[in-house]
Amino acid sequence: MIPIRSLAIPLVLLIGGSAAAQDKGTIDPKPLPPLANPGDPKLAAKELFGRRTAPADLRSRSIGSYARGCVAGAAAIPIDGDNWQVMRLSRNRNWGHPQLIGFLQRFATRLPGINGWPGLLVGDISQPRGGPMITGHASHQIGLDADIWLTPMPNRRLSRAEREEMSATNMVRDDGLDIDPARWTPQHSALIRAASSERGVARVFVNPAIKRALCREAGADRSWLTKVRPIWGHNYHFHIRLACPAGEAGCSDQDPPPSGDGCGAELDAWFTPQMLHPKPGKPRPPLTLAQLPNECRSVLEAP
Q1: Domain ranges across the chain
Q2: Helix, strand, or coil here: 115?
Q3: What local confidence, expressed as pLDDT, does residue 20 receive?
Q4: Span 4-274+287-301: which CATH code?
Q5: Which of 7, 141, 170, 230 has the fewest CB atoms found within 10 Å of its own CB?
Q6: Separation in Å, CA 187 to CA 89, 118, 150, 194
């Protein structure tokens, strides 16, 4: 059983709502209240992991799968670097597996030479101990996923208020069929191409309209497009997913993406009326702690 006292420390997160790049944060976040019965087996795991404000003092490792797991010994990317700035600090989601944090720092440092941008605006990575989130993502649970804004970092340090209130840029037309040519640039294409070409990157998720633009602009070398996977949302940011670190047997990789560039019928299927205007589905019940890998209980209870 998880003792109530261990979950009494509130996390500086807003209660309710979504957690996308276009959603604003706050410079005065309200704490989550303590749980009346944190040992309830029916309690959603997101309520437990969402109240952890610091990483588990354990050997660093990703546990489980991207949408059903947790992370031990997470590291935080510093909120400021020469070539990156972390956004939405009130969410406390700048934590990840040390390999992901190192990757983001190295990639950001290379960015001026890749597309001329001063740096990256980093969105959600993971919670301090990973796990399901109270708002937003189904994945981002094992510290190997990171959202990168499709807005270049400005040539100055953003204020705390700007990091909470500034909106990312929507790159997709209102009809969802293609990118907005007034906003999309060759620099965006170069950024996603470079991320997908990185060793250790398993997938890069983008809006189907952005994938359509990348297919059109790819040129002769189309090998990198295999990793670029279309998915709804992701019109304000793109999503980098690393493969499981070598030697971490408790981390479950996805199957490799299908071969080919994914630019034919596979992509066209995303633009049918049924896909563009789907009927609302029934919400899935939230994961409980018992539905996560057993090690995640130890991660949750660790100092």
Answers
A1: 4-274+287-301
A2: helix
A3: 67
A4: 3.30.1380.10
A5: 170
A6: 26, 12, 10, 10
